Amino acid sequence: MLNPLLKETIKRIGVVKIPVFGPCPRCGHSLFLVETLFGKFIVCSNPTCNYFSRVKGRP
Q: Is the pTM of the predicted complex or chain greater than 0.90?
């Protein structure tokens, strides 16, 4: 499940969303790279799916 604080931050700061090639492993919808104050995440475009994965690497 998506961290409520992260979810609220994504709503508030108007994060950058970049399409990522490949389907969501849970539901098959498109994935997006989302940049927040807490780092970069790959998230599902389907609002009912909770899939997300933190992008590791340089902050």
A: no
